[in-house]
Design a protein that fits this description.
Structural class of chain A: alpha/beta
Strand content of chain A: 15-25%
Number of strands of chain A: 15
Shape of chain A: globular
Largest interface: A-B, 51 and 51 residues
Order of helices and strands of chain A: EHHEEHEHEHEHEHHHHHEEEEHEEEHE
Largest sheet of chain A: 9 strands, mixed
Oligomer: homodimer
Radius of gyration of chain A: 22 Å
Chain lengths: 397, 397
């Protein structure tokens, strides 16, 4: 008999309780051992919940109960989540998490702590919600050297872009719509400034390349400055604007990680990813491009990934041995400014030499849009010196 | 030290030898044990191969060598492959296979035999080449009840459709082009008649629903009768023709499996899958739709999936416990003829009442194209009685 404790009864935590109850028989069969939800830790009261008898207020109960084998951490943030994860692992309990901020910041330490205590620390739900990505990347692609990770991993940002294009509304209005539909938080900073995307890239990159990439090492540009004019120019080239996270392996063993909006061809599978959907493209030296697509957020999709990890935890089926995260390597990060690509540029006035002028769409005054050839951001900045630049967006090739 | 024997040095087998050699250090680290290729069994001689010293001609050598822990079966077909797989499993060796025909036909028996001998039988490479699909479906989606499998799993058929649409050439010419480019065999029957797709559906379905679906239970229609007129009508509705394998769960526990060409909206992620690419969409009750996309064939992509399974075999990381295949259940198969959908119909002459007439494209004589409302094939056949029908293609909704 496996006893589970959930800490944090928010959207994901309550989804986990629901799935464990509704699909319990199949889940227990797959785990090879009956699974039972024993505790739910939350500071709030839920007197009307069907799980009302399971609520507790102090972590000590879980920590001190030898019956609890698996702790589900769905609190979010790093303070309480880190403390409880540490204490659970040290008490010999496996921990399953959907907390991207915690994994991106302390993943290496917690994986080591889990290994030391002969338990597992799993976090499939932290990237791509219910889309299987971390386990396939770790295991099914284990025979490959990974060349590139490129993903749309923030559903809120992608929903905003889709609304801008399909409804012709500006960023602020699309954001308000996302908030009204429950796709964006009241404080949308983490989504629209790219922080959430950055954290997910750190997790993907650490698994793909084997050393812990930290959020502060990833140059991150959000989507707040994208305008309808930019969308119109993208459309005129058969492209869409997408917020991408990328980590590209260099021949010298370095990696170049960055998060920024990109022009993406509609012929690329990523260009067709609309609304709140996520997609992660992984390029391996043997397999070429593979892509994983689905709903990257939401109560039940994310909870279903957490529950799959509970099953894996019961089977002591760790990922750590496949690709243990080594120490962070500051010297192995290549700056995105040196990564050459084409660029889309919008000018208030004047010409951009050596670039192709894009067909105009409802141009304001003397505005013009341009597509450069491949160059680094450093070289582009030199070209742009003295000009009044309205937008600069990288092109994915 | 793990010693591996490859049986069958064709495209995939030689790719496995290559990857084991080129990416050896990383593979051994991930397996937690050094992996060494010891034997290659093939009836042919390869005196100039870099692996020339490893070739043998009789299986007894592998069977009798206690050092060999993992046997890679890349022979294909069912006769020798079945015999060698049985003998290897009985001799206590794990077997890793890319052989969809063998798994589709004898998977249940071989999984049981492996379990009885406390070894593993893995076959990730048998569906979707290098695309991770069987393990994510078994493990990452383990908390879901699967509602539908829907996939483009034959690269040859998809390449032929893409050439027909993009180059405006008829089926026969597109097939010859596929053969000239090495995408189709000299005898293309298994690809163009849907048999290969059918076998892959049996494997996907057996994993998703937990009981062994057999190829003879899957109504299978190939692509040889698709014409440019059909492609033009599809285009006029914003659709593409794709050969799909589908298995749909009924509320009563039945499943409805079939392989046939479909009209697929270009707005559906499957509609945009071109050339030799494969994509498999899986619908779970919690996670909703997820899709796995990539190159479904080719030497190194397929071999990389085989090598990932070698690593998993070394770690005794079986899939069987997650979803053991139960006995075949003939009574639980719902006939595709009773599965309602819209239909595209092309008539030589006359009208189809209750259907929408499609805009005509270079119509021959009195030909016309129609889109019906949702109905079963049985009801459609009643409608078509007495008419001269040129094409009937199911629509995916």
């Amino acid at each position: 008999m496996v006893k589970v404790a959930i800490i944090g009864f928010g959207v994901v935590g309550s989804g986990v309780a629901e799935i464990l109850t509704d699909n319990g028989a199949g889940i227990s069969r797959k785990a090879g051992d009956p699974i039972e939800l024993k505790y739910i830790l939350d500071v709030r009261d839920f007197p009307d919940s069907p799980f009302a008898d399971k609520f507790i207020k102090v972590f000590d109960v879980i920590e001190g109960d030898p019956e609890v084998n698996v702790v589900v951490e769905t609190i979010g943030g790093v303070s309480a989540a880190l403390e409880f994860t540490e204490r659970a692992l040290k008490a010999g309990k496996s921990v399953v998490s959907s907390n991207k901020e915690l994994v991106a910041t302390h993943g290496r330490y917690l994986l080591e702590l889990a290994a030391k205590n002969k338990v597992v620390y799993l976090f499939e739900a932290s990237v791509g919600g219910g889309i299987p990505i971390l386990r396939p990347l770790s295991e099914c692609m284990a025979a490959n050297d990974i060349l590139e990770i490129c993903g749309i991993v923030n559903g809120t940002a992608n929903y905003i872009f889709t609304r801008m294009v399909q409804d012709g509304i500006p960023f602020e209005e699309a954001l308000r719509g996302a908030q009204a539909n429950g796709y964006a938080e009241k404080d949308p900073t983490a989504d629209v400034e790219g922080l959430d995307t950055c954290r997910k890239l750190c997790i993907l990159s650490s698994i793909a390349f084997g050393w812990h990439l930290l959020p502060e090492q990833v140059p991150t540009i959000g989507i707040t400055k994208i305008t309808l004019a930019d969308e119109a120019y993208a459309d005129s080239c058969g492209m869409r604007i997408k917020l991408l996270c990328r980590a590209i392996a260099g021949a010298d063993g370095s990696i170049c990680p960055f998060v920024e909006p990109h022009f993406v061809s509609m012929k690329d599978p990523l260009g067709g990813v609309e609304d709140v959907f996520n997609a992660i493209k992984v390029t391996g030296d043997s397999v070429g491009d593979v892509m994983f697509y689905g709903r990257g957020a939401g109560k039940l999709p994310t909870a279903s990934a957490v529950v799959a990890d509970i099953i894996a935890a019961v089977r002591k089926h760790t990922l750590a041995g496949y690709q243990p995260w080594q120490e962070n390597r500051p010297g192995d990060v290549m700056f995105a400014e040196r990564f050459a690509s084409r660029w889309y540029v919008r000018l208030a006035k004047g010409e951009l030499t050596g670039a192709k002028k894009l067909s105009a769409h409802q141009v304001q005054g003397e505005e013009s849009g341009w597509m450069t050839g491949p160059m680094t951001r450093i070289d582009l900045n030199a070209e742009l010196e003295g000009k009044t630049v309205l937008s600069v967006i990288r092109v994915m090739d």
